[in-house]
Write a structure and sequence with these properties.
Elements lengths: L5 H10 L5 E5 L21 H10 L3 E6 L4 H8 L6 E3 L12 H19 L5 E5 L2 E5 L6 H14 L5 E5 L2 E5 L5 H11 L4 E6 L4 H7 L5 E5 L8 E3 L2 H15 L1
Parallel strand pairs: 1-2, 1-8, 2-3, 8-9, 9-10
Antiparallel strand pairs: 4-5, 5-7, 6-7
This protein binds ligand L263DTV3.
The ligand O=P(O)(O)OC[C@H]1O[C@H](O[C@H]2O[C@H](CO)[C@@H](O)[C@H](O)[C@H]2O)[C@H](O)[C@@H](O)[C@@H]1O binds next to β4, β5 and β7.
Pathway: Glycan biosynthesis; trehalose biosynthesis
EC number: 3.1.3.12
Keywords: Hydrolase, Magnesium, Metal-binding
């Protein structure tokens, strides 16, 4: 099994002694490997079992904090545990969004659909409070970059731009994972928290954690997180290790 780095293991041991404890994780690129079709992003083997063990521990709250809409996250992951579900980068903290936001999002769909349709392999993902232009499966890389630049240029200033891995998302709310994590932390009265993330939008969450909390970057890339695991199996190994320490 993928090991947990020694410095991170020591931080987990310290974290395990604190309650209430918030264990929060991103989904894509952390609990699921990145794949071409977003709807095919199934969980890594062992991920759900580790989350369930953590959620069963006394004084521990598990939260899933995703750029996906909550319903999509539940359907794609198949997870059914007693977790806090945070979707749309925090815009959906507990439930679905209002119709007014959907109207603004629909206008974006009408604007971008014909543009995306011109690039073979590109996808337009329609989410509760945003649209995402995906280029992971665009073989012509200059065309992929040009599409992302075009989407960026078409976005009016009231939108929030969220670049990510092979994607540019245009959101009709200013929600970010950092504000969502702070709210969650306060709601559970957490004495400590850990957050795992792999993408640009997770940096907001890392920055929101106070000293003593544990921020873990999954995979390569620049980050403000002080800890790192190499990949998705490494993230699952971390969660398993924390569950062992809490047992
Ligand atoms: O916050 P997350 O749970 O990590 O969600 C971030 C975005 O994940 C999805 O896109 C990413 O994963 C796809 C499936 O592996 C991949 O095809 C794509 O290139 C990645 O950007 C999801 O589709 C987005 O809605 C999420 O915002």
């Amino acid at each position: 099994m993928t090991g947990v780095p020694a410095d991170l293991d020591a931080a987990l041991a310290e974290l395990a002694g604190r309650r209430p404890l918030l264990v929060a994780s991103d989904y894509d690129g952390v609990l699921s490997r990145l794949v071409g079709d977003p709807s095919a992003a199934t969980p890594e083997p062992g991920a759900e079992a580790a989350l369930e063990r953590l959620a069963a521990a006394t004084g521990v709250t598990v939260a899933l904090v995703s750029g996906r809409g909550v319903r999509d996250l539940q359907e794609t992951s198949g997870f059914r545990g007693t977790y806090r579900w945070v979707g749309s980068h925090g815009a959906e903290l507990d439930g679905p969004l209002t119709g007014e936001l959907a109207d603004r999002r629909d206008a974006l769909v009408r604007l971008l659909q014909p543009v995306v349709a011109q690039v073979p392999g590109a996808r337009l993902e329609i989410k509760p409070a945003s649209v995402a232009v995906h280029v992971r499966e665009v073989a012509d890389r200059p065309a992929a970059a040009a599409l992302l630049a075009q989407a960026d240029a078409l976005a009016d200033p009231s939108l929030t731009k969220k670049p990510g891995k092979e994607v540019l998302e245009l959101a009709v709310t200013a929600a970010d994972k950092g504000a969502a994590l702070q709210r969650l932390r306060a709601e559970v009265g957490a004495a400590a928290a850990i957050y795992l993330g792999d993408d640009v939008t997770d940096e907001d969450a890392f920055r929101a954690l106070p000293p003593g909390d544990v921020a873990v970057k999954v995979g390569e890339g620049e980050t403000v997180a002080p800890y790192r695991v190499a990949d998705v199996p490494g993230a699952v190994a971390l969660l398993d290790r924390l569950a062992d320490l809490l047992a």
